[in-house]
Design a protein that fits this description.
By secondary structure, the protein is mostly helical. 79% of the residues lie in helices and 0% in strands.
Length: 457
């Protein structure tokens, strides 16, 4: 019996009509990747220099909260007027945030700079995903997502080393200020391509901006509750945060989102669990390796490098498989990837506290990168294909919203545990809770199979 393979789509991602768009969004992802890996590598030095270890988690959470707000606003704007102007606004915010963080005299100012960076980063990523949905047919989206994952290879290889070298030669401030020329180059090369992405004309919903503001406020209260030693105050702040956040999130994601009835809703839950587990823990990896194992910033950054490379490699492998199987195994591969991430978190927690060679920790964390490479891309493709017509920007924005919500909660909880319990015990508890979140993501992935397109309600 002869096996008939699907014919390749007409024109590839680098065909004349798509080349500039592809190069533009890959360059934008390169910028985000450099920022992420470089900041994570030098942040322990920032905390020491500014006497801010107790606020360590806020350095990540502030970025993610800003990301949440801009994702909703700028993705809605992109649906209404096109992608170019939201991208320009986002890059201006990102540059201002880099400047604030690089010149910060105190940890509070540094955290404010990270929040402004988040406002910019959210817009950049939301516009990128909208561009994938509008600029490519479904048969090419897996390949584009693999290219975006590949954009982490170069930053993964040299990001930690470059960040460490800049910190040694110029201080940690050079890591933030040194990204400004790269940002300017990204704007010059990307903006013309985005001007060709059409607008859906979907009206902006003011209630979504109000809802994301309330959700962000509730999240801040929850994170503040985690850092309180007074249990009564912590309970009051936590309850207020829940009462603010839950109704707002229901409005943003749809009133039936908690039931996970549709693939889009299940995809949001998968993204929340994966980012809580992986990115919340990644915030602690360099800090734990430097404080518990005595590694240098460059050495601790190698763990992030290994995970980034494995993520990229498995994303490419998934894209090849997805093209050959016409997307039939996306749900299964999401579950598999989430389970690999869960195993990675458990192993990393054990090896950090065991008298085993430090390179085993790097291998364990790289396993998590492999799991994310499969799960992240597979569930994203399901959600993009299931997006209701005319709501592509909204769905893309909600994916990023779930991304940032999970990351903010994970990093905030990790930072609070470290502040309350110390680096050793706090990292152990944090990784354990992260493993539970990743396991729940694997369970939610079983609801990704249906492909019916219905409007979000």
């Amino acid at each position: 019996m002869t096996t008939v393979r699907p014919s390749p789509p007409a024109g590839g991602v680098f065909s004349p009509g798509r080349r500039n768009l592809t190069l533009g969004i890959v360059l934008s992802m390169l910028l985000i990747a450099f920022e992420s890996l470089a900041v994570a590598t030098v942040l322990p030095q920032v905390a020491d220099a500014l006497n801010g270890l107790k606020l360590y988690g806020w350095s990540f959470s502030a970025f993610f909260v800003g990301f949440m707000i801009s994702t909703v606003y700028l993705s809605g704007m992109a649906d209404r007027i096109g992608a170019a102007r939201p991208y320009l606004i986002a890059t201006l915010c990102f540059g201002l945030g880099l400047l604030l963080a690089g010149l910060a005299p105190t940890m509070a100012v540094f955290i404010a700079g990270r929040a402004v960076q988040g406002l910019g980063g959210g817009g950049v990523i939301a516009v990128t995903y909208l561009s994938i949905n509008r600029g490519y047919p479904d048969e090419l989206r897996a390949r584009v997502l693999a290219l975006l994952s590949s954009a982490w290879v170069l930053p993964g290889l040299i990001g930690p080393s470059l960040a460490s070298a800049l910190a040694l030669a110029l201080s940690w401030r050079g890591v933030f200020l040194g990204l400004l020329p790269l940002l300017a180059l990204a704007v010059v090369l990307t903006l013309p391509s985005l001007q060709k992405i059409g607008a859906a004309g979907t009206p902006t919903d003011p209630s979504r901006l109000r809802a994301v503001t309330l959700a962000a406020g509730g999240l801040v209260l929850l994170l503040a509750a985690l850092s309180q030693k007074n249990w009564a105050l912590a309970a009051g702040l936590g309850m207020a945060g829940v009462l603010l956040a839950l109704p707002a999130l229901g409005h943003l994601f749809g009133r039936h989102v908690y039931l996970l009835r549709r693939p889009v809703e299940a995809g949001f839950a998968v993204r929340l669990g994966l980012t809580f587990g992986f990115f919340g823990s990644e915030a602690l990896i360099p800090l734990s390796l430097q404080h518990m194992r005595g590694l240098s910033p460059w050495q601790s950054g190698l763990a992030l490098t290994g995970a980034a490379l494995m993520w990229s490699a498995c994303s490419i492998l998934h894209s090849r498989l997805d093209e050959r199987t016409q997307g039939r195994f996306r749900s299964l591969l999401t579950s598999l990837g989430a389970l690999l991430t869960t195993l990675s978190l458990v192993l990393t927690a054990l090896l950090l506290h065991a008298p085993w060679p430090v390179w085993t920790i790097g291998l364990a964390w790289a396993l998590g990168g492999a799991g994310m490479g499969f799960a992240f891309q597979a569930h994203t493709l399901v959600v993009l294909k299931s997006a209701p017509e005319g709501q592509e920007g909204l769905v893309s924005g909600n994916l990023q919203l779930a991304d940032m919500l999970g990351s903010a909660l994970g990093a905030g909880l990790a930072g609070a545990l470290v502040a309350q319990l110390g680096v050793s015990l706090g990292s152990g508890w944090s990784l354990g809770l992260a493993a539970v979140a990743a396991a729940l993501a694997a369970l939610a992935a079983t609801r990704l199979r249906s492909r019916q397109k219905t409007a979000l309600a």
